[in-house]
Amino acid sequence: MDKTISFTLKVWRQRSPKEKGCFKSYQMKDIPTDTSFLEMLDILNEDLINKGEEPIVFDHDCREGICGMCSLYVNGHPHGPATGATTCQLYMRRFKDGDTITVEPWRSAGFPVIRDLMVDRSAFDKIMQAGGYTSINVGGVPDANAIPISKEKADLAMDAASCIGCGACVAACKNGSAMLFVSAKVSQLALLPQGQVEAARRAKSMLHKMDELGFGNCTNTRACEAECPKCVSISNIARLNREFIAAKLKD
Amino acid sequence: MWLIDSSIGRKVVMSVTGMALILFLTFHMAMNCVALFSEDGYRAICEFLGANWYALVGTVGLAALMVIHFIYAFWLSWQNYKARGSSRYAVTERPKTVEWSSQNMLVIGIIVCIGLFIHLINFWSKMQLVEIMGDKPADGVDLIRNTFSKWYFALVYLVWLFFIWLHLTHGFWSAIQTVGWSSKVWHKRWKVIGNVCITLLILGFASVLVLYFGKSLMA
């Protein structure tokens, strides 16, 4: 028989964006430590449904750390206490018997709560639509290495592109700033020749969209970088600052 | 105007005014340290600056930098507070790589300003201000000796210096990051350079204080 733990789960319940929310406690009994955090919530929800209560609403999709759909602010950390992992990659073996586990939604003006633990992250889509793409005609598939890109640059671009857009950076930031997300999305293109053509316009319009949607100003606390499930570096923020300032000085 | 209506622009204003203030403190410290070696030398510097036109231009410029840095600090903090939303987290935990000072720059800055107020009353109001009014300014060395012979002023100034150290060790690399002169490698280098420079700066100020407090104990 696997090891099991019992603990108290404090979950934020909120019926709609306008209504006031509050914490509700649930006693979890004999949960196997091999259960993932989301499976544990599934167990609780099944129980709630059987009892005729409203299940807890939370976001999830691929459950393998790729899609960026899961969220949850667990015990003071976006995506829970594990580093470099999403909530769906979090397992109950991280917790001890008798613990109280507090689960909250992302809290930020840019991410209003829809219900319970689910927040509206469509602000990120709007920022992407503002310029997170290339609109050049690429034609057919080019020959390999037709456009030489140094290994160093390719690595940096890939590291920036590892951002899954989950919003943990905003959730972690005391200023509710989306700079890590925006900088990763600007960097992944700014580092490559294909992204150069629209680089200045992209940096300006994505940043303006971010400001317009009510995200805060970056104060370099590095909380975003520490909590990012993909360990995206704040050196991307420096690059975005550079790109933006250069674009504005050229105007 | 992008220095007002974009988040990066507003941060650039904080960064540039902050860097200018660090530069001022460096000169200030260098001039203070003259008092370690030669009291006559320090008096000569006080006389050279005094209420001459270039010193007045410098003072006005400095005051402007301070005011801009201050106004933007409150403005940014207010915007950031609003961006956090109306409900706060019940449980928060600071990750290891996040410095405490980086999340409390406004509070530390306000404490530094209180210290500055005391400092202006102690020194500036008896030196440059008196000279602007047309009177003879107090002797700089006497002022240092009198102020730091009192244990409570020595203590207040040491605490003040500690808070300036907290503010600037974050402010230094943060200012450089904001204007974009940083990368994965240079981030670590700037942090080391910043910590060394700011620690030397604060030790420079503290050495004058400690020397004159020590002298007062001997006398």
What's the helix and strand layout?
The complex is a heterodimer of chains A (251) and B (219).
Chain A: E1 4-13, E2 22-32, H1 37-50, E3 73-74, E4 77-78, E5 100-104, E6 113-115, E7 118-119, H2 122-129, H3 151-161, H4 168-172, H5 179-190, H6 193-196, H7 199-212, H8 223-227, H9 235-250
Parallel strand pairs in A: 1-5
Antiparallel strand pairs in A: 1-2, 3-4, 3-5, 6-7
Chain B: H1 2-5, H2 7-37, H3 39-49, H4 53-83, H5 100-103, H6 105-122, H7 128-132, H8 140-148, H9 151-178, H10 184-218
Helix pairs in contact in B: 2-3, 2-4, 2-9, 2-10, 6-9, 9-10
Number of strands of chain A: 7
Task: Report the largest inter-chain contact.
Answer: A-B, 51 and 45 residues
Distance between the termini of chain B: 59 Å
Beta strand % of chain A: 5-15%
Quaternary state of the chains: heterodimer
Question: Can you give me a brief rundown of this structure?
Answer:
The complex is a heterodimer of chains A (251) and B (219). Chain A is an alpha+beta fold and 251 residues long.
Question: If you had to describe this structure to a student in words, what would you say it looks like?
Answer:
The complex is a heterodimer of chains A (251) and B (219). Chain A is of the alpha+beta class. Chain A has 9 helices and 7 strands, in the order E-E-H-E-E-E-E-E-H-H-H-H-H-H-H-H. Chain A has helices at 37-50, 122-129, 151-161, 168-172, 179-190, 193-196, 199-212, 223-227, 235-250; strands at 4-13, 22-32, 73-74, 77-78, 100-104, 113-115, 118-119. In chain A, the strands form 2 sheets. Chain A has a 5-stranded mixed β-sheet with strand order 2-1-5-3-4. In chain A, strands 6-7 form a two-stranded antiparallel sheet. In chain A, helix 2 (122-129) runs antiparallel to helix 7 and helix 5 runs antiparallel to helix 7 (199-212). Chain B has 219 residues and is an all-alpha fold. Chain B has one domain (12-84, 99-218): Fumarate reductase/succinate dehydrogenase, transmembrane subunit (3 helical TM bundles of succinate and fumarate reductases, Up-down Bundle), CATH 1.20.1300.10. Helices cover 80% and strands 0% of the residues of chain B. Chain B is built from 10 helices and no strands. In chain B, helix 9 packs antiparallel against helix 10. The model of chain B has no long low-confidence stretch (mean pLDDT 95). The chains are: A alpha+beta (251), B mainly alpha (219). Chains A and B meet through helix 7, helix 8 and helix 9 of A and helix 2, helix 4 and helix 9 of B.
